[in-house]
Amino acid sequence: MESSLSYLLDIGIVLLAANLGGIVSKKFNQPAVLGQIVAGVILGLGIVEKTEIIEVMGELGVIFLMFIAGLETDVDELKASGGSSATIAIGGVVFPLLFVVSGIYLFTKDIQLSVFMGIVSTATSVSISVQTLREMGKLNSRQGIGILGAAIIDDIVGIILLTLVVGIFKPGEGSNLIFVLLKIVSFFILTFAVGYVIIKLVKRFVGSGNLDDKIVSYAIIGCFLLAFSSEELGVAAITGAYFSGVVFSMTSFRHKIAHDISSISGLLFTPVFFVGIGMGVELGSAFLAIGIGSVFLVLAVLGKIVGSGLGAKLTGFNNKASLQIGIGMVPRAEVAIIIANLGLKLNLIGEKELAAVILTVLITTLVTPSMLKAAFKGKKAAARSS
């Protein structure tokens, strides 16, 4: 009879693999996150099953990661980069969409399939870029903030485009676009209101022994509640987690919260998230569609690098910084797979196209950390051209 505590062994193996993978990766002068993902791919070959508890711990890991990213964000710089982030995001949506729709249509002659695959290509999952930038100490650089801001806008634009496309091709299946927009607006109103209240309360009770002792607990509660609310309102949970971090970054407890949560998350939850990404990769499925998969991969990657890079260049970043931002927007992970699975359920795409997305997720996940590190090598890049 299998022990009811067997999950402890699974978690122990996952954490050991994460640590070993990180050590090996750093030996080769690569970010630890790359080694953790590769370790997950190896475990996923049948060594450890990706159980529900591993998935839950992984979800907590990415929520904590984005919460910490919010805590480490310079709010003044985030406000100043709003227009730049929007331009980067628009480029990072328009170019992949155009590249992929055109390329897949030439390959399949199916406009419905091509448009949906184009929508899939717009999805950005920056958790990998965020962790890599944190390791390099570049998360709070202008490039890092530009990537974070653009990724949030990407998510919102992607939701709207997905709703539009499903509404056109499967009118009975999608939510009303106005309803989707209202939910997104509601999320930002809620975030602003909650943030205002939290900042006022912290300022009022700062110096109170109870608040000083419990602030990290209150911050985690706030993070979880806002992450849940954002998911319920149709915006990704990680977006809510990020903005809750931004709210607490405007309090005097910013460094204490970031230090304590980084310790908890970095030891336990975040490594499980990155190993879990690797464990979730189905190598067999990914290589089923090497033909259309190669077309999708190349165009999706080029679309982000060219589109987001051009958006950065147009808003004053120099060539090197623009390339860094373009590369930071490349990864596709769970968001792309979720959208592709929806397309499969609605018969907008087939198994081969789903496999093409999985292949793209696998390769962009593995190569982005190394590409980012290479892009930041050499002389310190100026974020803005003179």
Describe the secondary-structure layout.
Elements: H1 6-27, H2 32-43, H3 52-71, H4 75-80, H5 82-108, H6 111-122, H7 127-136, H8 142-169, H9 177-205, H10 209-232, H11 237-249, H12 254-279, H13 283-286, H14 290-314, H15 319-328, H16 334-345, H17 351-375
Helix pairs in contact: 1-2, 1-12, 2-12, 2-17, 3-7, 3-11, 3-12, 5-6, 5-8, 5-14, 6-8, 6-14, 6-16, 7-17, 8-9, 8-15, 9-10, 9-11, 10-11, 10-12, 14-15, 14-17, 15-17, 16-17
Account of the 3D structure:
With 386 residues, this protein is mainly alpha-helical. The protein has a single domain, classed as Na+/H+ antiporter like fold, CATH 1.20.1530. The protein contains 17 helices and no strands. It is globular. The C terminus is likely disordered.
Total helical segments? 17
| Gyration radius, in Å | 21 Å
> Ends: how far apart?
69 Å
How much of the residues is beta strand, in percent?
under 5%
Number of strands: 0
The second-level CATH architecture is Up-down Bundle
Principal-axis shape equals globular
The CATH class designation is: Mainly Alpha
What's the structural domain tally?
A: 1
CATH topology: Na+/H+ antiporter like fold
Low-pLDDT parts are: 379-386
Overall pLDDT score: 85
Short description:
The chain has 386 residues and is mainly α. 79% of the residues lie in helices and 0% in strands.
